[in-house]
Amino acid sequence: MANGAETLVNTLVDNGVEVCFANPGTSEMHFLAALDNPRMKSVLCLYEGVCTGAADGWYRMKDVPASTLLHLGPGLANGLSNIHNAKRASSGMVNIVGEHSASHLKYDPPLTSDIEGLARPLSHWVRRAESATTIAWDTATACAKASEHPGQIATLILPGDTAWKDAGTPVVPQGLTRARPAPDQARVDEVAKVLRSGEPTLLILGNKATRGRALDLAGVVAAGTGCRLGSQFFTARIERGAGRTPLERIPYAVPLGQAFLKDFKHIVTLETKEPVAFFAYPGKPSLLKAPGTVVHSLVADDEDSALGLEMLIDALGLKGAAPLVQERIEAAAPSGALNPESIAQALSAALPDNAILVDESLTTGRQTMGLTMGARPHDLINNMGGSIGYGTPVATGAAMACPDRRTFCMVGDGSAMYTIQSLWTQAREGLPITTIIFANNQYAILKAEYTNMGAGQQPGPQAMAMIDIDRPTIDWVAMAKSMGVPGVQVDNAEDFHKAMARSTEMDGPCLIEVKLY
Predict the structure, then answer these.
(1) Residue limits of the Thiamine pyrophosphate enzyme TPP-binding domain (predicted)?
(2) Which residue among 99, 209, 223, 331 sits deepest, i.e. has the most Cβ atoms within 10 Å of its Cβ?
(3) CA atoms of 316 and 352, how far apart (whole Å)
(4) Taken in order 502, 504, 506, 512, is the CA torsion positive or negative?
(5) Cβ–Cβ contacts within 10 Å for residue 78, how many?
(6) Is the dihedral of CA 361, 363, 364, 368 positive or negative?
(7) What pLDDT does 442 receive?
(8) Residue 63: partners with Cβ closer than 8 Å, 6 or more residues away
(9) pLDDT tens per residue across span 346-362
(10) What interhelical angle do 305-316 and 185-197 show, nearest 10?
């Protein structure tokens, strides 16, 4: 008979969860033994935030949850930052958190903590396994919860004795999955009336509406009615580039976002909400739309955007019409100084077909990404939760999910230091990832936010000491080499483009340090 840990792993795989990003400890040794299962891919990560970020990246590309293995409450706490990001991106995830056996907990050992209390604010479902015989039921329920739309965070706490005891005959619940519903016809008819009115209208697409059939259908609506299509500044995953329906990105900065939205009389949302400022700024609004703009929800978070857009196209009489499509903009290899324009030109020229682009470049990316719309078709992944240190782990999981595609991860030097351990996992697994570190030796974004928040025009010496990261200067190429990843440093647009192009011919990971002065 199987023990609880073996039953847990078998039930995960039976329910479509086929990878575990793990950072195990003593209490998880039986689960670790159970991972010696040919049906389950286990991946060692050297920090729990890499585990949870990689699980997020896996889901974004697969639409299927991954599992993580975390060591007790402190291990879960180390992973919470990227669990937060995954939750905001509606990524499904099954977190297995080890725990002391019940007989040991009464002695209050050093690693005792309130695991449920840590997990609950960032989980949709939390359960502590009560016995080995309930493991199959608990695991199947966790998988079903994580697989819902939108994706959910499920956390299963595994006491040691439930892992090593006999699990008996597995019993699992039935009928836990449900189809995504279509939106209400009345909502569809209301939006059709708005679009027929000719008043300036913006459709804002989110979650699964930004790719696949839903994106194509949105292009039909735009071509047939003249409405514009947009996305929030940060989106879980967008299919973009030549041959795909283009989405305009609502600017991040409050004044720019207000200017972008000021002339729209109507905003229609699909699997997202109306645009909101990322932070509260003195004297500036939280909501970015103009006074008098009406917001209409076409497709709710849990509904099917493709079905909703099909209904809208029927209501508008546009069935069979051609969608709006982005043309290919051929970009010549750039030369000269590195700036947002030359960086975008290098990306557009070097990105291969069907690349995955994970963006955590913050200051650099805010100005760059809008200039790459005409690149070859690719997927763009953003950080919707705002907690930095997501980029390299998410790229790790995305590349695990799609090993036949090159993944590019653009990240600022400040953000990269949070979870740079990702490089070690990328090297160990031979993942096709190009990590691009934009090294300006500072938290440049905070300099701008210092002024935006009204704290002063320029930070003083003590404030600057909390923003600059140049004493000592980080050697990114040496750090990458120490973890088995070859690297190169560039300081001009021509060399940056060449390094990117060379990386597309590599089988495994590499790093490009882009020196910004």
Answers:
(1) 376-514
(2) 209
(3) 37
(4) positive
(5) 18
(6) positive
(7) 63
(8) 208
(9) 999 999 999 999 999 87
(10) 50
- Specify the CATH architecture of the domain 185-316: 3-Layer(aba) Sandwich (3.40)
Q: Are 267 and 248 in contact (CB under 8 A)?
A: no
Indicate the domain borders of the chain. 4-164, 185-316, 340-515
pLDDT tens across 304-318, in order?
999 999 999 999 999
Q: Around 65, how many Cα atoms within 13 Å sit in the side-chain half-sphere?
A: 35
Q: Which residue has the tokens 């900065």?
A: 253
Two structure tokens written together for 380: 């763009």
Q: How many Å apart are CA 480 and CA 486, to the nearest integer?
A: 6
Structure tokens at 289: 């739309």
Structure-block tokens of residue 61: 């590309």
What is the rounded CA–CA span in Å between residue 474 and residue 482? 13
Q: State the amino acid at position 338 in one-letter form.
A: L
Q: Which amino acid is at 110?
A: P
Q: How many CB atoms lie within 10 A of CB 152?
A: 22
What SS3 state is found at 127? strand
Residue 98 to residue 160: CA distance in whole angstroms: 7
Q: At what angle do helices 135-146 and 4-14 cross, to 10 degrees?
A: 30
Query: What is the reported pLDDT for 447?
Result: 61
Convert the pLDDT of each residue in 273-289 to its tens digit: 999 999 999 999 999 99
H or E element, residue 463: helix 461-465
Residues 6+ apart with CB under 8 A from 373: 240, 241, 246, 326, 329
Closest listed residue to residue 143, CA positions, set 132, 154, 131 = 154
CA distance 16 to 143: 8
121 contact partners, CB below 8 Å, separation of at least 6: none
CA dist 170 and 160 (Å) reads: 18
The 3-state secondary structure of 8-29, one letter per residue: HHHHHHHCCCCEEEECCCHHHH
- d(Cα 163, Cα 30) in Å, to the nearest integer? 6
Q: How far apart are CA 408 and CA 510, in angstroms?
A: 10
More confident call, 371 vs 100:
100
Q: How many CB atoms lie within 10 A of CB 462?
A: 7
Query: What count of other Cβ atoms lies within 10 Å of the Cβ of residue 77?
Result: 16
State which fold the 340-515 domain adopts: Rossmann fold (3.40.50)
Sheet bearing 266-270, strands edge to edge: 248-249, 228-231, 201-205, 266-270, 294-299
3.30.470.30, 3.30.1330.130, 3.40.50.720, 3.40.50.970: CATH of 4-164: 3.40.50.970
Assess whether the region 4-164 and the region 185-316 belong to the same CATH fold.
yes
Instruction: Report whether 136 contacts 168 (CB < 8 A).
Output: no
How many H helices and E strands in the chain?
Answer: 21, 18
User: What is the gyration radius of the CA atoms in the chain, in angstroms?
Assistant: 24
